[in-house]
TrEMBL record:
Species in which this protein is naturally found: Sesamum indicum
Cellular component per GO, a single term: nucleus
Cited InterPro entries: S1FA_DNA-bd
Gene name of this polypeptide: LOC105161394
Keyword annotations of the record: DNA-binding, Membrane, Nucleus, Repressor, Transcription, Transcription regulation, Transmembrane, Transmembrane helix
UniProt subcellular location: Nucleus
Record field: compositional bias (Basic residues): 64-80
GO MF entries: DNA binding
Superkingdom, natural source: Eukaryota
Annotated family: Belongs to the S1FA transcription factor family.
Transmembrane segments: 35-59
Gene Ontology biological process: regulation of DNA-templated transcription
Protein name as annotated: DNA-binding protein S1FA-like isoform X1
Pfam families attached to this UniProt entry: S1FA (PF04689)
Main location, first listed in the record: nucleus
Length: 90
């Protein structure tokens, strides 16, 4: 028994025929411009963050440690009094 499809099933409705053209047109068009912009902006942000991290690591290795502010005499005196040690000269 050979299978022979009916003539009814061979015909494709016109709406589906138009859809094939739409799909072909989208395929030939190339990338979506919105996608290109999104990838470009995302790439630039990623590049910025990676660059900042690299500069931060480089600065931590090469720059000398930050100097601490000198403690004022008044604060030193107050600390000694808190600990119970009398300040010299009193």
């Amino acid at each position: 028994m050979d299978y022979e499809p009916d003539a009814e099933f061979d015909r494709v409705p016109p709406s589906f025929d138009r859809m094939k053209n739409v799909v072909r047109g989208a395929e030939a068009q190339g990338f979506n411009p919105g996608l290109i912009v999104l990838l470009l902006v995302g790439g630039l942000i990623l590049l910025f963050l990676v660059g900042n991290y690299v500069l931060y690591v480089y600065a931590q290795k090469t720059l000398p440690p930050k100097k601490k502010k000198p403690v004022s005499k008044k604060k030193m005196k107050r600390e000694r009094l808190k600990q119970g040690v009398s300040a010299p000269g009193e």
